[in-house]
């Protein structure tokens, strides 16, 4: 895994350099969460295989947004998006849902898991790297990585090499991992006016 990560980041260095090196100010500081909600079945099964990734977080923190931390987010997002070929679980494994770390191909949850892993190895606290379930404008479900920062919540997405403030996406946010316990999930109160089909 570590050799793959090194090669992935190196391969995307030139692409990442072409993307803005500083974050835009977040429109809304952070998502509002509600109470506990159901854990996706795929994540439940993933936790049985990798229980160390689904523990209670001893401390809850956010990323201090600096030029360096912003560059890490952009670099990892671009690197994984460039290195992994998108395929469905049905095509890869013959089942509707199977969350796993990708090496060559994967679906949206697999992209998220690898980005989460890579950023955690860069020293970003687990409580700030949250798998998030959204609904796309076309009604389909999707998974992205929410990164909690002192400038708001930002989204890493396999459908977009840009790192965007959550409120600048066209998604409806449904639920995400709890920042206090990676094996628990909380609902999201997304009351923004959704511009279905808009392009940003």
TrEMBL record:
<feature type="signal peptide">
    <location>
        <begin position="1"/>
        <end position="26"/>
    </location>
</feature>
<protein>
    <submittedName>
        <fullName>Putative transglutaminase-like cysteine proteinase</fullName>
    </submittedName>
</protein>
<dbReference type="InterPro" id="IPR010319">
    <property type="entry name" value="Transglutaminase-like_Cys_pept"/>
</dbReference>
<keyword id="KW-0732">Signal</keyword>
<dbReference type="Pfam" id="PF06035">
    <property type="entry name" value="Peptidase_C93"/>
</dbReference>
């Amino acid at each position: 895994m570590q050799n793959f990560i090194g090669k992935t980041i190196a391969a995307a260095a030139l692409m990442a350099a072409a993307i803005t090196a500083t974050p835009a100010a977040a429109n809304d500081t952070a998502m509002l969460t509600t109470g506990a909600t159901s854990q996706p079945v795929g994540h439940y099964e993933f936790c049985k295989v990798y229980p160390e990734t689904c523990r209670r977080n001893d401390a809850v923190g956010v990323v201090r947004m600096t030029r360096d931390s912003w560059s890490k987010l952009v670099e990892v997002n671009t690197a994984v998006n460039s290195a992994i070929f998108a395929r469905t679980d049905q095509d890869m494994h013959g089942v509707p849902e199977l969350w796993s770390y990708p090496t060559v191909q994967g679906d949206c949850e697999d992209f998220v898991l690898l980005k989460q892993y890579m950023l955690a190895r860069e020293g970003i606290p687990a409580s700030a790297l949250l798998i998030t379930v959204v609904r796309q404008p076309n009604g389909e479900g999707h998974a992205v990585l929410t990164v909690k920062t002192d400038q708001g919540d930002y989204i890493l997405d396999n459908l977009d090499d840009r790192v965007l403030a959550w409120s600048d996406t066209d998604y409806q946010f449904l639920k995400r991992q709890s920042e206090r316990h990676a094996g628990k999930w909380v609902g999201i109160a997304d009351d923004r006016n959704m511009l279905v089909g808009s392009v940003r």
